[in-house]
């Protein structure tokens, strides 16, 4: 397939995923199984509150139950872990999402690690990451999975391509690097200590921006004809990529909003239903 | 520290590690704890038999008990997994090493995954890999850990350097890529599908060869002054790097034999003692 200049429409990709999820939810309902995602929000960060609400609402739109847990700002690590362990044991819950970030006094990694692998539908545990890296995870981390879903949907060639990932977080840069590697890309992972980042990005056939800085990736960093996936989502709906500048250089690019974000949520819903289907067995 | 041309002497690094391990074994003995590594060899591959024997002998040389299990060629996956589970439950065993590769009819990954994380001193499970990737593993995979140990021993600068890893296996290329990334290198992972490998290697400040092909990396692929770590160990004691050619270009290089190999074994011994020390608590 020859690609012309293409805006990678995350809403269209998400709708395709969600349509399929909805059918599977209907089928499960006919077997008296109601998939249920527990979301945990700690504290009062308004963006986190918005994200978690969106996720809960999206669940309900597709017939997935949403158990919304809101813990106070002063929750301790121990209390949060105890809450997660209770959800791990609850037979009604198919997936657990802990909204990131949690207040800074909490050991976020300890909380993530408390989520049982069977319910880690957001793909945040180290065990889930290891399985993803080795190519057999049930629930790959949602944002990287969304990026791969967009790539697959638009049949973007990956094998033998040079992918440059900017960012190395446990839930984005690292897992997407491994997923691209498993699809036979040559992968360079860059970060804040990378020397001469523009010249490295310039080599990329595929650029993944996962750095959390608005308009960080500039147009003159981009090789003509590159594919750009912007996983950034900064204040004011601004991506990590300077869209105006990069659009002209890229062969294909995700907008923000309407790119990776909506697909991420659809992956979460899909994984929740994947998990619920295991109840049947 | 300014490095002159340097042969990275794995035997010296291993001896430093082993000296410390030996002291710790003596201390444990004084507390009536005898560290014990179980090694499992399946079938009759002569190189595997040699490697596993070396590991067992090295254990005994330092006062670590070596429980050597040799299963017949026709062992099934189920039988191997059952053997591993028994070792998981044995309170006398601190670590389990399954010699790789196992006969091809066995599901090697399933066997590796059966090793409990507490005894995965060789660092082969996906859970161990995830912990390594996130920077909190007790027992990082031994060959990558050996490479990092050599780097640390010789104080080779890593932060901000461009490291190119050739190979992406679960026990070598992938974990060493993540370990270098966690030490703030910019990391490119290459493999059989990489296009124009020489030009990518040419950019590297640090080259890790982990491809399993004798003399694969050529001198004219190497940037002047690069550091080369050769994890290859092919028939006839030949590395993955053409040593003669690459020596002239490199600032520092590991020989084969006497490079990464001996340090790998010392890491295994160290991890076994790390595990035994937990019995004290």
From TrEMBL, chains A, B:
Its EC number is 1.5.1.5, 3.5.4.9. The lineage of its organism: Bacteria, Bacillati, Bacillota, Bacilli, Bacillales. Catalyzes the oxidation of 5,10-methylenetetrahydrofolate to 5,10-methenyltetrahydrofolate and then the hydrolysis of 5,10-methenyltetrahydrofolate to 10-formyltetrahydrofolate. Belongs to the tetrahydrofolate dehydrogenase/cyclohydrolase family. It catalyses: (6R)-5,10-methenyltetrahydrofolate + H2O = (6R)-10-formyltetrahydrofolate + H(+); (6R)-5,10-methylene-5,6,7,8-tetrahydrofolate + NADP(+) = (6R)-5,10-methenyltetrahydrofolate + NADPH. Residues 8-122 form the Tetrahydrofolate dehydrogenase/cyclohydrolase catalytic domain. Pfam families: THF_DHG_CYH, THF_DHG_CYH_C. Keywords: Amino-acid biosynthesis, Histidine biosynthesis, Hydrolase, Methionine biosynthesis, Multifunctional enzyme, NADP, One-carbon metabolism, Oxidoreductase, Purine biosynthesis. Homodimer. Residues 142-279 form the Tetrahydrofolate dehydrogenase/cyclohydrolase NAD(P)-binding domain. This is Bifunctional protein FolD. PANTHER family: C-1-TETRAHYDROFOLATE SYNTHASE, CYTOPLASMIC, C-1-TETRAHYDROFOLATE SYNTHASE, CYTOPLASMIC-RELATED. Pathway: One-carbon metabolism; tetrahydrofolate interconversion. The gene is folD. SUPFAM superfamilies: Aminoacid dehydrogenase-like, N-terminal domain, NAD(P)-binding Rossmann-fold domains. NADP(+) binds at residues 167-169.
């Amino acid at each position: 397939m020859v690609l012309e200049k293409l805006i990678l429409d995350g809403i269209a990709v998400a709708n395709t995923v969600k349509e399929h999820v909805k059918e599977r939810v209907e089928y499960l309902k006919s077997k008296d199984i109601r998939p249920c995602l527990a979301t945990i929000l700690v504290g009062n960060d308004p963006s986190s509150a918005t994200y978690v609400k969106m996720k809960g609402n999206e669940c309900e739109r597709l017939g997935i139950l949403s158990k919304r847990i809101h813990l106070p700002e002063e929750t301790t690590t121990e209390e949060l872990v105890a809450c997660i362990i209770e959800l791990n044991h609850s037979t009604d819950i198919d997936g657990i999402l802990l909204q990131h970030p949690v207040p800074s006094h909490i050991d976020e990694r300890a909380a993530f690690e408390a989520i049982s692998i069977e319910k880690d539908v957001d793909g945040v545990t180290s065990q889930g990451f290891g399985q993803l890296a080795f190519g057999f995870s049930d629930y790959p981390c949602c944002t990287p999975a969304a990026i791969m879903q967009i790539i697959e949907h638009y049949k973007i060639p990956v094998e033998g391509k040079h992918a440059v990932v900017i960012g190395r977080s446990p839930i984005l840069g690292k897992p997407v690097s491994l997923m691209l590697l498993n699809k036979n890309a040559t992968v360079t992972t860059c970060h804040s200590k990378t020397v001469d980042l523009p010249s490295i990005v310039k080599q990329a056939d595929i650029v993944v921006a996962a750095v959390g800085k608005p308009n960080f990736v500039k147009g003159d960093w981009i090789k003509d004809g590159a594919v750009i996936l912007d996983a950034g989502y900064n204040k004011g709906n601004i991506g990590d990529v300077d869209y105006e500048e990069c659009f002209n250089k890229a062969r294909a690019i995700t907008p923000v909003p309407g790119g990776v974000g909506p697909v991420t949520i659809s992956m979460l819903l899909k994984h929740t239903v994947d998990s619920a289907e295991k109840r049947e067995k």
